[in-house]
Amino acid sequence: MFSDIGFYELVGMSVLALLFLAVPSFIAYNRRVQRLRLVILVNALGACTGVFWFVALYMALRMRTESDPDPESAPAPGGRLGV
pTM to 2 decimals? Predict the structure, then answer.
């Protein structure tokens, strides 16, 4: 099956695979997560295993972004500042 693959097909499939493996890093960058380097590190080191790719994807989707307010400075329910 793979014996008929030419050089350009192999290069094209490799580029598509690398782009797919980098999806968590792209998502984290676009969301502007606070610990972007950590997501990229987990993605780069563990993408080939598959398990850590899902960890990096979860981190990219769930980590706090730079625009999120600090939970300690947020007003308490009722409009008063928590002390």
Answer: 0.71
Mean pLDDT of 25-51: 91
Q: Which DSSP letter does residue 64 get?
A: P
3-state secondary structure of 73: coil
CB atoms within 10 A of CB 2: 7
Determine the residue type at 49: T
Confidence of residue 23 (pLDDT cuts 50, 70, 90): very high
d(C-alpha 43, C-alpha 20), whole Å:
11
Are 46 and 39 spatial neighbours (Cβ–Cβ below 8 Å)? no
Distances (CA, A) of 56 to 4, 12, 14, 48: 34, 24, 20, 12
Q: Which residue has the tokens 């980098």?
A: 22
